[in-house]
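USER: For my understanding, would you kindly supply a protein sequence with its structure tokens?

ASSISTANT:
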Amino acid sequence: MYIQDTVKFTRDTKYWALTALSTTILTSEKAIEPYSEGIFNIIGQIMQSGDEQNVKGNALMVAGRLIASCGKDKIKPEYVTLFTNFGASHLVGESKFELKETAITYFADLSVFLGDEGF
């Protein structure tokens, strides 16, 4: 609710709600799997929205944590492609440093997901 409602809640509220979600994913590990589809959809909407870069960066970090937590057999390849392309596009160019930093965090989580075998 805090992440999706753009009318009632400010950018800061969305930012901190995403931070809380990221921490929840990190600590819950595999228990988050039943909620992953809904979370991925919300994160994808944020990345395509007019939200500020720091909110999008936090959303990307949530995506990386969720991908790493769920495992290869539970993640649709199109999610990995979507978030990886988004992260890669913000490592270069005019993006704010904070978004670049969260893109690096995303790729660190992606490396946990990929492991030695790849996807």
